[in-house]
Design goal:
alpha/beta; 17% strand; 9 strands; single chain; two-stranded parallel ribbon; 8 helices
């Protein structure tokens, strides 16, 4: 039985991906800092093939314990890793405090680094594996108030590229998904402000936000054997956001 470990599996995109792999008959490990979310997601999956692991990605020792516990349940293997843990911090560039800066870097950059490093060591020894990290359209474009978040999402792409170049010959692939605007608990504050929410929808050629479940398809593709020759890249699933200049629609169009 193949095994997948999903960090940030307690809600949103992580939950959607976990459900997809559970339907394929895989053993699924759910890791998250949110204990309630873990319970809720696990209730949607086959109990005999599901394990939950509470952890904080900022603590590498906790991640190492989770990895050890999960592989003990999966016969020592980790076939697929999806790291979905992430946080945001908004505000004018000159007003971002050190606490907010450290929190986003610790989760989005250091957290991804620790998860990627430990999982990569295991996968390179077993000679196979697929890893997907979550980046964002903010790795390429940004907006006022997104300095720290955008910085970390760009950094994730470089982590992916470097790991892919180092581990490719061992049979381990590493990629990223770059979502656009997605309805998740992280973006709930935006949804609560109609003008902001609608402005994002209008910027997207599809004129709507994505649901978390719509990120499962691109993620599953990159993680699966269907992408066996894909590594070191980012797949944008953004409803056309990056293709759209968005400043003006000429008359008659």
């Amino acid at each position: 039985m193949k095994a997948i470990l999903v960090t940030g599996g307690g809600s949103g995109i992580g939950r959607a991906v976990a459900i997809r792999f559970a339907r394929k008959g895989w053993r699924v490990g759910l890791a998250d800092i949110d204990a309630r979310g873990l319970v809720d997601t696990a209730a949607m999956l086959p109990p005999e093939r599901t394990s939950t692991h509470q952890m904080d990605v900022r603590d590498p020792s906790e991640w190492e314990h989770v990895l050890a516990d999960f592989t003990a349940l999966s016969g020592g293997r980790l076939d697929v890793l999806f790291n979905n843990a992430g946080v945001g911090a908004g505000g004018p560039f000159g007003e971002i405090g050190l606490d907010a800066l450290d929190r986003v870097i610790d989760v989005n950059l250091k957290g991804n680094f620790h998860v990627l490093q430990a999982a990569g060591q295991l996968m390179t020894m077993q000679g196979s594996g697929s890893i997907v990290l979550f980046s964002s359209i903010r790795s390429l474009v940004t907006e006022p108030g997104q300095s720290v978040y955008s910085m970390t999402k760009s950094g994730i792409v470089q982590l992916v590229r470097t790991a892919a170049t180092e581990w490719g010959q061992t049979g381990v692939r590493v990629n990223a998904v770059g979502p656009g605007v997605i309805e998740t608990p992280l973006t709930a504050p935006i949804k609560a402000q109609p003008a902001w929410y609608n402005a994002y929808a209008d910027k997207t050629p599809m004129k709507r936000w994505a649901k978390a479940e719509e990120m499962a398809g691109p993620t599953v593709f990159l993680l699966s054997d269907a992408a066996s020759y894909v590594t070191g890249t980012i797949l944008f699933a953004d409803g056309g956001w990056l293709a759209n200049d968005g400043r003006f629609t000429p008359p008659g169009m």
